[in-house]
Amino acid sequence: MDTSPEPRLILLCGLPGSGKTTLAKRLAEEIPAVRLCPDEWLAALGVDLFDEPARDRLERRFWHHTQDLLRLGQTVILEFGFWGRAERDEKRVAARALGVPVELHYLAVPMDELHRRLEARNRKEAPGTVPISHELLEKYVNVFQAPDADELRLFDAPTGAK
C-alpha cells in the first residue's frame, strides 16, 4: 500500500527578507518536496538577479517543470515571491486542473523587521542573494499585492509538514 502523501503545489508569497527560503528549505526536507528558487538558480548560473528577462524565462521553465513533477506525483515548492494576485490565481487554477491541492504560504512581516533582516543579509553577502536597500524595498512594497483573507480561503490548508 502506498502511504506517500498526495502531490501538492506550495507557493511562497512575501517580500524580500520575509523568510521564504528559510521556510521552503524546512518544508522541502519535512514533506519531502522539490524546491525551486529562481534566485539560487540565477546566481549559480552567473546571471544578474535583477535581469528580469532571464528571471521571467527561468520562472516559465520552472512552471513547466513543476507541472511535469506534479503529474508524476511529486510535491513542489515555488519560491517566486508571488507578488501579484493574477500570478497566484494562475498557478492555483492550473494546478487544480491537474487535480492537485495548492497551498499559499503568505509571510507577512512588518517593515521594520524586513529592514532589519535585509540589513543583516546584505552584510553577509550570501550566495544567491543581492543587496536590497531601504529604497528598493519601499519600491517593492508599492507593487506588492498582499493576499487578503478572501484570497487565502481559495487555497488548501497546509498539510504534511510539522
From TrEMBL:
Pfam families: AAA_33. Keywords: ATP-binding, Nucleotide-binding. SUPFAM superfamilies: P-loop containing nucleoside triphosphate hydrolases. GO terms for molecular function: ATP binding. This is ATP-binding protein. It comes from Streptomyces aquilus. The lineage of its organism: Bacteria, Bacillati, Actinomycetota, Actinomycetes, Kitasatosporales.
